[in-house]
Amino acid sequence: MEYQDHKLSIAPMMDWTDRHCRFLHRQLTRKALLYTEMVVADAVIHGARERLLGFSPEEHPVALQLGGSDPQKLAEAARIGEGFGYDEINLNVGCPSDRVQSGTFGACLMKTPELVAECVTAMKLAVKIPVTVKCRIGVDQQDPEVALDALADRVFAAGVDALWVHARKAWLDGLSPKENRDIPPLDYGRVYRLKERNPSQFIGINGGIQTLDESMMHLGQVNGVMLGRAAYHTPGILAGADAALYGEPAREIDFEGLIDTMAAYAARHIEQGGRLAHVTRHMVGLFHGQPGARRFRQILSTDATRVGAGPEILHKAFAAVELERAGQAA
User: Fold this and answer.
1) Residue spans of the chain under pLDDT 50
2) Same domain, 147 and 266
């Protein structure tokens, strides 16, 4: 697959885009590029790799996002990720958490574009799959017109395959990570100008994008769109993505088939020592805006979290949706 084909991706989101979330999203879109949560390079090298990096073959195409700032450690972690079968390695230059700052990686790397370029060079030498970067438009008092160009120029010179830009500043001094997702104003125009300046490079946009219609609008200006919270809280919107963005035949969601697939997946996870809630916590918004959505959410938030809960809870929750639908249709 050419990188240009990645018109849509689902953002790496800490505590959200784990393997169970990605398996669900893949049932809804065959085309979107899925991202892992950020994994620190040191953890990849020294930690429990199967737990940190394991994923289902059905998730492809899937990218591993790494955190770190040591070029050699990132190269080694990228090599390990490629060995696990990931389709892409992404470097996090956008996460604003305090924990990330103390480790000298994430958004604070916007201040050291030369180091980011060194990391990209090392990773490119270590793997054959694409190496990409996800960044902000700037941090703290930086001028985004200067800071974003400085970073982009260096990583493109280092051979990065794509630059995904969250179209907000990150305020490392004064805002919490949660506040940094909402309070700094969005500046889509800054990302568009970056694309105008780099017409031959893949540039994707992220931040506050809520719908497929908005995504299509952005694709008139940049190469790719990255959905975050909208894809997580209302995953049903992904069912229309392949038709809207890739020209695939339109299709209705086969909810019964989807529930069967997720129940079978949950059963396998439980057999391996997991819990039903590990899977169902990502599904609570599946029927957002539809009859029965509230009852579905209630059952998954209560029954599915109990010790010993099995996949039959998913069928119970879906039956409640079906019942309410039938009542409205009568």
Assistant:
1) none
2) no
If asked whether residues 288 and 194 sit together in one domain, one would say: no
179 and 223 inside one domain: yes
Q: Say whether 111 counts as a known binding-site residue.
A: no
- In the set 21, 95, 119, 135, the catalytic residue is 95
Measure Cα distances from 188 to 222, 260, 318 in Å: 10, 40, 39
Determine if residue 57 is labeled as part of a ligand binding site: no
Q: Evaluate whether 89 touches 131 at the Cβ level (below 8 Å).
A: yes
| pTM for the structure as a whole | 0.95
**C-alpha span between 164 and 325 (Å, rounded):** 40
Residues 31 and 107 both lie in one domain: yes
Give me the pLDDT at residue 45, please. 97
Residue with token string 């700094």: 184
Looking at residue 42, the DSSP 8-state letter turns out to be: H
Under a CB-based contact definition with an 8 Å cutoff, are residues 169 and 138 in contact? yes
In terms of phi and psi (left: phi > 0; alpha: psi -120 to 50; beta: otherwise), the region of 101 is alpha
**Residue 304 belongs to domain with CATH number:** 1.20.120.1460
Q: Is the peptide bond before 61 cis (omega within 30 degrees of 0)?
A: yes
Q: Say if CB 39 and CB 76 are below 8 A apart.
A: no
Position 108: which residue type?
C
pLDDT at 71: 98
Q: Give residue 312's identity as a one-letter amino acid code.
A: E
217 carries a ligand binding annotation: no
Give the domain range for residue 121.
Answer: 3-246
- Which residues lie below 8 Å from residue 172, measured CB to CB, with a gap of 6+? 96, 101, 107, 108, 139, 140
On whether 138 is known to bind a ligand per the annotation, the reply is no
Residue 21 a catalytic site member = no
